[in-house]
């Protein structure tokens, strides 16, 4: 069991505080939905956790190891795989090379095994090993982006708007993959525009409004009280 802890995190962007003294935890085996309107700070939170954006104050820990203020490589090595919004695969490289590039921190044997596991989850990728990633459909590229995250064998996955622009059927499959990973012990932060879908899969939920949580609790409460979300999205 692993715990991922965010304590009193604040993040500034463009001279503005976009994450404001935020605290929450993620647990192994649980999906935590992070919902909220455009500009609430969801992507900024992911980028700050991933070590891409600087943290103004507060702390991010994984099982007691402080990873805030560290490089993206160290955060990844600690077991956090961020699949950022609009994540682009290396479009000039093949599917296989993209997956292998994601396993650079592991031994060749471990990386090969992890790549095979990604192929087992996404047979479409296995059928296109030599294909240039940029020539695949949006859905296939998103599978590859998630596959890259998996190759690192993360303890926690931060999935930011994975479903953007994808057909509902593919979205359902990507969700099913996340649910299966959670059932196998991965902790997941799920940022999703399809709020109903996210709330169906999630064990916990937060609503982010202007860098702060306006709701934290059971997804069931949000499902039964749509007003809570409506208010946040209209604020
Ligand atoms: N590159 C940037 N430079 C400066 N400010 C930015 C940048 N990107 C986003 N912001 C600002 O940071 C705040 C939070 O944006 P962020 O992208 O984190 O929100 P979000 O919740 O992910 O929104 P969305 O649902 O549209 O993806 C917004 O006020 C936004 O204008
Ligand atoms: Mg975003």
Structural class: alpha/beta
Bound molecules: adenosine-5'-triphosphate, magnesium ion
- Order of strands in the sheet with the most strands? 6-7-8-3-9-10
Radius of gyration: 17 Å
Question: What general outline do the C-alpha atoms trace?
Answer: globular
The number of distinct structural domains comes to 2
Q: CATH superfamily of the largest domain, please? A: P-loop containing nucleotide triphosphate hydrolases
**Which fold does the CATH topology of the largest domain refer to?**
Rossmann fold
Stretches with pLDDT under 50, minimum 5 residues: none
Helix content: 25-40%
CATH architectural group of the largest domain: 3-Layer(aba) Sandwich
Query: What does the largest sheet look like?
Result: 6 strands, mixed
Number of strands: 10
| CATH hierarchy class name of the largest domain | Alpha Beta
Q: Report the sheet-strand fraction.
A: 25-35%
Q: Mean pLDDT score, rounded?
A: 94
Domain ABC transporter: 4-235
Family: Belongs to the ABC transporter superfamily.
Keywords: Amino-acid transport, ATP-binding, Nucleotide-binding, Transport
InterPro entries: AAA+_ATPase, ABC_transporter-like_ATP-bd, ABC_transporter-like_CS, BCAA_Transport_ATP-bd_LivF, P-loop_NTPase
Quick recap:
Keywords: Amino-acid transport, ATP-binding, Nucleotide-binding, Transport. This protein is α/β, with parallel strands linked by helices and 235 residues long.
